[in-house]
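EI: anyone free to look at a 349-residue chain?
SC: sure, send it
EI:
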Amino acid sequence: MAKTFTPKLLHWFDQFGRHDLPWQKQKTAYRVWLSEIMLQQTQVKTVIDYFHRFIERFPNVKTLATANSDEVLHLWAGLGYYARARNLHRAAQIIQEQYNGRFPRTVEALQQLPGVGRSTAGAIVAIAFGDKAVILDGNVKRVLSRVYAVEGSPLDKNVIDNLWAIAEKLTPVERIGDYTQAIMDLGATLCTRNQPRCGDCPLQSLCKAYHLNRVEDFPAKKAKKEKPTRDVHLILLENNAQQILLHKRPDSGIWGGLWCLPEVLEKEAISLWCTQNNLKKYAVQPSLAPIKHVLTHFTLQIHVHPVKCVAGKSRTSNAKLGTWTALPALISLGFPAPIQKLFKRYYND
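SC: here you go
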């Protein structure tokens, strides 16, 4: 299999692979790393605009390492899985401080960086440095599961170990960067999760799942569960100086590290919240239309309740109350995507 798998794949890649993605130009370890982190659980078409904006503001490790975390999260807002952005920022600081701004060249050293797993480290080594390293991202798992008709879920350790062994056996020494990009491209463009284009696949003659007429069975799908819905109640508190009260969320949990509005358990708790925070003069306005926001494991139903209050103008944080922020500053902070949209709509910005 290995003798024919790689030549067929590379021949296809030379003709039909993606060669003009932004991170493939002026190829550096920094650009490869950034793209690999952004592409985790996110489609290429979504990542491209974010990558351009990120590179324009942070063209190298040093600029990212010395940046304010709020600005990093602001540029990441809407891309989701915000732990990636926090890990990216911390990893840049480690590279700058411990490696003098140069990326380590081994899979083992790269795996010590926050947010860099075995497959991501392998992609950096192979694509950026041209050294042999193995990858096994979601696209590659799907390709190998089908070509070899690997039974079982890729979530099971035995299955994962088997796929890593297959990937190791197939990975060539020569043209390692092209091979790595090629097998990811194949999974992303032809060997897709739904409606794979088997008729165009260069590996069709080798694919056991295809010859068994069981392509849709691989990799084994986990049972679908109905997504639960969670209600979230947020207070859009504006004072007489046209400032909005913001809270920075903890690093763990949903929207970790991002700025958000104060949260209460239900609308009826707003008055108690205002009393506890010594807001004596306030008026609760009619609630806005609920915002539906779909996440990976559940759906959020976001209820926003505007409140006008009389409060002194402040430029500093208050550990208990939060941080009063002037409207123009809202455009420079990192907010969850639905809150960002809310501000644009509510303030016509």
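EI: Confidence is low (pLDDT under 50) at residues 313-319.
SC: 👍
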